Amino acid sequence: MEIAYYPGCTLKSSSNLLEVQSIKVLAELDIQLKELEDWSCCGATSAGKTDDFMSIAMPARNLGIACNSPQSELVIPCSACYSRTLVSQKRLEKDPALKDEINAELDKKVDGDVKVSTILEVLMPKVESGELAEKVKKPLKGLDPACYYGCMLTRFPLDVPVPDNVENPQGMETVLKELGILKPLDWSYKTDCCGASAAMNDQQTAFTLMSRIMRDAVDRGANCFVTTCPMCQMNLDAYQDLFCKQSGICERLPVYFITELVGVAMGMSPQELQIDRHIVDAVSLLKELKLA
């Protein structure tokens, strides 16, 4: 099965390890990712906050490429890129004049129906068919993860079809149960904002938000985070020591991307999945639980 794939800027730079593991893990499930040819930045935070037209036009260029590819589904691992692309698609569907204006400047037109999916949406059919469970070699017993979705995966500025509960999503929990985690944590901050790019220009606000997420996860007994958003993963991982010291939090928790734990359960090594590249040590817990 071949699916079109849009990596976005982050998975080609600071979060490249997430691209490496996503391709490996999905290939084990007989899903081949076909990267869009000549894709470009979707605008994400910059265009989304400063120019409404460009926030629609930039992801529309990638949608046009996807519409002219042989695949009928486009997976986007980054929550920000996913959100901007899905919003652009729905805006163009509802505004034919805007669609014509943007298409007039595109070599490959937005003309056709491409399903825009998250990593979780791609994994879910493998859960339902039982194929994921069949691939599990090391059930993830002993992991008590706080599933952290972030604020962009289920919240949009207009009405779009959200494939999960907006306030209490369960996609990650469903996948993790197939991997041997019987009861992922029930906690209060799974869709709270981590500050996203504000970590660069308003660090105090971002650190306050991250410390609230961290404190609640620790108080609930989590021994790790699991994320679906590269920005959330990077923030909680890269800045954890700083915001924990600032807030008087003694504990430190590894921050896994969902495909990392799928790969570990399949028997892949932390090195193969590049888990050893995390800022907060994410390998020791796996070794302690005899998962690595």
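[next item in queue]
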Amino acid sequence: MVAHRLPFVLSALWLCQGVGLAGAQDKVLVPPLESGILLTVHPLFVHFAIALTVFGVGCDWMGRVESRVHWQRTGRLCFFAGVIALGLAVFSGWIEQEFPRPSSAFDTQIQRTLFYHEYGGYGLLGFFLVLAVVRLRIPNRLPRLFMVFSGLGLVGLLIQGYLGGELVYRYGAGVRAVQILSHQDAEHGQKKAPEGDSEAMKNRE
């Protein structure tokens, strides 16, 4: 029953995102999230992508080392689920980064890190899709070469997660409070500028 309802739940989430995007304008005073209509699902998919992929590869490795067939079956299933979640994470991230958002005090740093995070995600998804196709053709014991490449994929996944954490926890990308405060600081600076100019003109007179 849950599997049958999942497409409807995902469709409803994307519909909410579409409503939020349609209502957003280029010169919004607050982020689209402030309206309470927009739902972001990228963080949800990211957690599943990391957890399922790491757990799946770990079980696959342990099943190979300990010669436990049921461990390898569990790891194989979780690995494929993790690759699907990774695809959803990349897709949802691409959708959400297209939303208009107000300027932030960290725009320069955000753009640089976002570039590596976005294109690193595309490359990582392609890498894991190739691994998934190869894993489908491995019926029994895992080859060492596959273990090496899956380990490299996990390293790339951890780096990708670190970059995403930098965007959120260091620069506040997508965080309403940071964006609203940045906008308020900009407005406060614009209000102060005319007052300072008038005082300078009085001093000159």
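[queue empty]
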